[in-house]
């Protein structure tokens, strides 16, 4: 399945068909992230319930600590 993630085309296996599964595949599952799916910002609780489809557009922002 082809998704647009942070402005780049990315091909992912169909088994990563929810936002939660996609984040796990990107090693972001346990990090604090903000996800925008087709121009809608998602709450973390929604991630397991949002099914991804071909050509969906996602923006994923994760935070990096520092000082």
From TrEMBL:
Family annotation (PANTHER family): SULFUR CARRIER PROTEIN THIS (PTHR34472:SF1)
Protein name per UniProt: Sulfur carrier protein ThiS
One matching Pfam family: ThiS
SUPFAM superfamilies listed in its UniProt record: MoaD/ThiS
Gene3D superfamilies, sorted: 3.10.20.30
């Amino acid at each position: 399945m082809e998704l647009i993630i942070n402005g780049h085309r990315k091909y992912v296996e169909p088994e990563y068909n929810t936002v939660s599964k996609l984040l796990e595949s990107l090693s972001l599952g346990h990090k604090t992230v903000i996800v925008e799916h087709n121009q809608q910002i998602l709450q973390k609780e929604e991630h397991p319930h949002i099914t991804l489809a071909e050509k969906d557009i996602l923006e994923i922002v994760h935070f990096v600590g520092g000082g």
